Every structure is written in structure tokens, then in C-alpha cells.
Design the sequence.
């Protein structure tokens, strides 16, 4: 007879076995604590909304004002600034690397005096709620490893993403919705986004992100097929659970219990998902605030509004993806379109959360996988330019959830090419996010293939300068 975990526990003592199994069962139930049981310390944030701008937004055209770039427009990037740093194959073979000043005007806004370009008229009005980080850097220079790094803490695919780690550690706050939900803007070109970016990796499968889609079925295969009633579905699930219980007792495989939990969650979501995605109860004033696209399901604006509704229902981690920021050429026109699609809704989300008293315990993150170069890729003209990938320094911002509002952290040099002060690595960002949720990033681990993994891998620290 094989000695499974359950058999072992029953033999070493009914009392001890019952307690242990009861704790494991409660930990896996929706609405209960995750593997940590409770946060390591008092959290500032209860939930996260991550607005991921895929492709690499140009920081020197949005937030990082560099007058010297305009003054030296067309000059070659000095070797003393580049310092032999690697370039991509797309611009590394250019005869020259001409500096490209921004085509957009910058001004200071709010009591904080934050610099914002005229591409973002709505964001400029909420700068006192934001914490800008102008000294983020990463190790990846191409899209897929860079996005994977931001989502999972590793450039190599297969690790659990941040939302999965947080779901695993803290569990769900809602019995009827997943702890981790994903929204991807529809009809967008640009770099591909793979479902592994919101995958659970080697964590139990109930911690993977649940993707919401535009259309009649927001969650694929959630609705009952024609001719199958709710009672019939319930009967099938009960029998499947009985079979899974037998298999789990025989095999001792926790993934069987995870599969049962997912079936049960899907059954409850047949009611909860149509309710949360039905925007008919939102007043016109809310749609006006988020912009005209808010009435178009699957648009970035509609997803921002849906993110607020999911946050209201205590979904723990909400991930939005918006593609199209990869402007190697034709940047002025391309980035203008991106900002038109995202600026109003982004600012509306912050304002909406604040008006509802939710911003204080909701952490909002905005940023891409890297920035753009201060030199031009391709031909520089009086009206047009492009920018290559730049992992050395770029800008992100955070709001709410315990971050220091109305501040700017870090700085770049006069040409926006290198970090001048307070560098912040991807692992530091992850450690800070976990800290705001009450998690010591070094203590949220999972043993896999003989070693204990964590989101921050082997480095990273929570950055005190970002904390309120």
C-alpha cells in the first residue's frame, strides 16, 4: 500500500491529522487566507490594480523633461554618456545616434510641481496623487524577456507572476470571484502578450489569472451549454468532486484539490461575473469621466472602469494590459494615439477610487517593460523621429495604497540616458509592492525542484523612499 499524506496523518494521530487537514482545506477555500495565514505586518494596501503599458512608453516624451535634449537635438550621443553600453540590433548598427528632443511641450503641475507633457492633459491634473519613479531600470533589452521579468521576477518563462504570488500568499477576499483577474485591451497591435504572463507557474493552478474578455462570454466556457440547467451542472460537479476526492486520497496530489476548487469557483462565477461586467447600473457621469470609449467593452477605458468594479468587490490583484507603445519610428503620431486611448481613463480611475474612499487601500501601478532611448532610431527629421528600447532608466508611477503621494523618486542625467540618483531595480519594485500588502518578500516562498523560490528571486528590497 502506498503511504499517502492523508494515510500518514491518520495513522500518526486522528487529532493532529484532523487539525492539519482542516487548516489545509480552509487555506484553499475562496475568501480565506492564503498560505501565509495572515500578512507579516499591517498592510497599507488591500488590493492592487496594475496598468501595464506594453511596448515601452517613452519617458522623455511623457514625464522626464530634458531641455538639454532639445538644445542638442541632432548631435551625436556622446561616448562618455553611452559608456559602451549595449544597444539593440535595430539601432546598434547606425552610423550615428542623433539626440532627439521631444516634440511635446512640458509644464509643471499641482502643488508637487511634477513635470508632465501636453500628451497627458488628464494625468497632469492628478499629479499630487502620484508617486513618480524616474530611475527604474531592468536587465532585459527585448520585449518578451523584459515583460516576463516585470510580471514574474525572472526573464525566463515559467515562473509564477506577481498576481499569482499575491493570491498564493494572501488568498481571496471574495467568495465568488478569483483573487487575480486580467483585462487585456482588445484590437491592439504591437508586441504579443502570452497567457503565461498571468500564469501560476509552479504554484497551485487556482492562483493563475482569470482573463476577462469583451463580448457575451467574459470568461470562456463559463456558461452552461445549451440544454444544460444549473441543477444539472451542480449534480455533475458533485459527482466530479466525489471522484476527485477519491483520486486525491489515493494519489496525495494537491493539484487535484486545486482543480476541484477551480470547478467550484467557476460555478459561483456563473452568477458573479455577469453582475460585475454589467455596466448598466453605472450613471452617465461615470462614463463621461472615463471617456467615450468606456461604453465600448474591451477598450482600455472600459477595462479601467471594470477594474474599479472588481476592486469594489475586493478582487485582490487586477492586471490590465494595453499594447502599442513600441514606437521605433513615427513616435509623435504613435504616442499621441496611445495617450488618447489611455490618459483620460487612467486619471479617471484614480479620481474614481479617491472619490469612493478606495484609493487609500488600493495600490495603482502604471508603467511598461522598459523606456525609450534619448537618441533617434532611424532618420531624424524636423517633425518625426523614433526611439529604440532603453532598459537603463525609465519612469513609472504608483498611487494610493501607502505610497508617498505628490513626490518624485530618483532622477536621470541631463540627456535622460543614465540614472543620476536613487536607482530602482525591478526586484526592488516587486519587494515594495509586497511590502505595501504586508508581505516580507523574503518570506513568501514556495519550494520547487529542491529550492525555495520567491517573486524577488535572490535580490530586492522595499524602498523606504516610496512609502508614506
Sequence:
Amino acid at each position: 500500500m502506498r503511504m499517502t499524506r492523508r494515510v500518514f496523518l491518520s495513522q500518526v494521530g486522528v487529532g493532529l491529522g484532523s487539525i492539519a487537514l482542516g487548516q489545509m482545506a480552509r487555506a484553499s477555500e475562496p475568501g480565506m487566507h492564503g498560505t501565509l495565514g495572515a500578512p507579516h505586518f499591517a498592510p497599507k494596501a488591500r488590493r492592487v490594480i496594475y496598468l501595464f503599458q506594453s511596448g515601452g512608453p517613452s519617458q522623455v516624451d511623457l514625464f522626464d523633461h530634458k531641455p538639454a535634449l532639445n538644445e542638442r537635438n541632432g548631435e551625436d550621443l556622446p561616448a562618455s554618456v553611452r559608456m559602451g553600453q549595449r544597444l539593440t540590433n535595430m539601432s546598434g548598427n547606425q552610423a550615428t545616434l542623433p539626440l532627439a528632443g521631444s516634440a511635446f511641450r512640458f509644464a509643471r503641475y499641482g502643488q508637487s510641481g511634477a513635470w508632465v507633457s501636453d500628451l497627458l492633459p488628464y494625468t497632469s491634473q492628478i499629479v499630487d496623487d502620484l508617486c513618480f519613479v524616474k530611475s527604474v531600470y531592468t536587465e532585459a533589452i527585448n520585449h518578451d524577456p523584459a515583460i516576463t521579468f516585470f510580471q514574474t521576477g525572472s526573464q525566463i518563462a515559467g515562473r509564477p507572476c506577481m498576481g499569482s504570488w499575491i493570491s498564493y500568499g494572501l488568498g481571496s477576499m471574495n467568495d465568488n470571484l478569483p483573487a487575480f483577474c486580467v483585462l487585456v485591451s482588445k484590437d491592439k497591435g504591437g508586441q504579443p502578450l502570452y497567457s503565461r504572463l498571468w500564469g501560476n507557474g509552479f504554484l497551485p493552478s487556482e492562483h493563475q489569472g482569470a482573463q476577462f474578455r469583451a463580448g457575451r462570454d467574459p470568461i470562456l466556457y463559463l456558461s452552461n451549454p445549451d440544454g444544460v440547467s444549473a441543477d444539472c451542472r451542480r449534480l455533475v460537479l458533485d459527482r466530479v468532486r466525489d471522484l476527485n476526492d477519491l483520486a486525491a486520497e489515493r494519489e496525495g496530489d494537491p493539484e487535484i484539490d486545486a482543480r476541484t476548487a477551480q470547478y467550484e469557483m467557476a460555478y459561483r462565477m456563473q452568477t458573479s461575473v455577469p453582475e460585475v461586467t454589467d455596466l448598466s447600473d453605472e450613471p452617465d457621469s461615470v462614463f463621461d469621466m472615463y471617456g467615450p470609449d468606456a461604453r465600448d467593452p474591451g477598450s482600455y477605458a472600459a477595462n479601467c472602469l471594470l477594474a474599479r468594479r472588481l476592486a469594489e468587490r475586493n478582487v485582490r490583484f487586477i492586471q490590465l494590459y494595453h499594447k502599442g507603445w513600441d514606437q521605433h519610428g513615427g513616435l509623435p503620431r504613435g504616442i499621441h494615439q496611445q495617450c488618447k486611448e489611455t490618459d483620460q481613463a487612467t486619471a479617471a480611475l484614480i479620481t474614481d477610487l479617491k472619490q469612493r474612499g478606495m484609493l487609500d487601500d488600493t495600490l495603482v501601478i502604471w508603467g511598461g517593460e522598459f523606456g525609450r532611448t534619448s537618441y533617434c532610431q532611424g532618420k531624424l527629421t524636423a517633425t518625426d523621429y523614433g526611439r529604440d528600447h532603453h532598459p537603463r532608466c525609465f519612469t513609472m508611477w504608483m498611487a494610493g495604497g501607502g505610497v508617498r503621494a505628490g513626490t518624485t523618486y530618483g532622477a536621470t542625467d541631463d540627456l535622460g540616458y543614465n540614472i543620476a540618483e536613487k536607482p530602482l531595480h525591478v526586484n526592488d519594485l516587486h519587494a515594495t509592492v509586497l511590502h505595501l500588502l504586508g508581505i516580507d518578500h523574503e518570506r513568501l516562498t514556495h519550494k520547487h525542484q529542491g529550492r525555495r523560490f520567491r517573486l524577488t528571486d535572490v535580490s530586492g528590497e522595499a524602498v523606504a523612499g516610496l512609502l508614506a
